[in-house]
Amino acid sequence: MQRPAAFGLTLATLGALALTPDAMLMRLSGMEGIQMLGWRSTIMGVVLIAAWALTRAGHWHADLALLFTGGGMAIAACQAVNGVFFTFGIVGSPVTIVLLGVAAVPVFAALLSWLLMGEATGRATWITIVFVLAGIGLAIFGKSEADAPWDAAALRGALYGLGVAICLALSFVLIRKHRAVPILPSVGLGALMAGVTGLVLTGPQQMVGDAILWPILVTGGIVLPVSFFCLSLASRHTAAANVSLLLLLETVLGPLWVWLAIGEAPTALMLIGGTIVVGSLATYLLWSRR
Question: Cα-Cα-Cα-Cα dihedral of 32, 35, 40, 42, to 10°?
Answer without folding.
Answer: 170
